[in-house]
Amino acid sequence: MIELDFDTAEISRQLDRIKDFPNEVQMALYPAMSDTMDYLKGELAERLMADVPLPRRFIKRAIKVIGMRVSRAECSAILHVASRAVPLIEYDAQPLEITARRGMRSRDWPDFTYALRDGQRRLGAERAAYSLPFIANMHNRGKSGHMGVYGGTAPSPGKPAGQIKELYGPRVQYHAANPDVASELFMKTENFLTNRLTQIVNRILD
């Protein structure tokens, strides 16, 4: 979650230019703020996509604007980043092929790599808990399955054989929780807001 609270001094200066047109004030301010938040969502998505090897769809649908307040006295909003659990295979698992091979013992199955951040690859074996992770196309109760990274869980009371479960990587918000990301975006966004508001006010006065 990134909280944004804009300095209203420059905003007031621009709105003072159209003080003789009171009906136009909100019509200028709200579009400027709305355009700014759209810009910010795009900038954050691009930043995350440059750092995190996830498909674009996971990142873009995780970013939302909530609690936007727009007035001469206050311009603020919250950029909320939240996603469901992301299957580990989406973290650029390579090679993207079935590693659970018939006729081979599981300990002899080939390993794979994945990356939580761009350029920082890890071995699948590093995620081993009870058994080595593997890539497979699993089916559930006769339904067609999907390719994913799976691993076995330790036996527990009532389930002596353990279970096979899909493995997941960090949610998108984990990658956005970097103070540097928030400060960089805020600097870009504040300039964008004042510039956009100036454009709108100029158009009203023309």
Distance between the termini: 39 Å
* Low-pLDDT runs: none
- Mean of residue pLDDT? 85
Gyration radius (Cα, Å) is 24 Å
**Main β-sheet: number of strands, strand sense, barrel status?**
3 strands, antiparallel
Question: What keyword list fits this structure?
Answer:
single chain, 206 residues, alpha+beta, 3-stranded antiparallel β-sheet, 5 helices, 37% helix
Would you mind describing this structure in some detail?
The longest helix is centred in the N-terminal third of the chain and has 30 residues, at 22-51. A hairpin with a 4-residue loop joins strand 2 (63-70) and strand 3 (75-81). Helices cover 37% and strands 25% of the residues. Helix 2 (22-51) runs antiparallel to helix 5 (179-205). By secondary structure, it is of the alpha+beta class. The chain is elongated. The protein is built from 5 helices and 10 strands; from the N terminus they run E-H-H-H-E-E-E-E-E-E-E-E-E-H-H. It has a 3-stranded antiparallel β-sheet.
Q: Which SSEs are present, and which pair or pack?
A:
Blueprint: E1 2-5, H1 8-16, H2 22-51, H3 56-60, E2 63-70, E3 75-81, E4 86-87, E5 113-117, E6 120-123, E7 134-140, E8 143-152, E9 164-166, E10 168-169, H4 172-176, H5 179-205
Antiparallel strand pairs: 1-3, 2-3, 4-10, 5-6, 7-8, 8-9
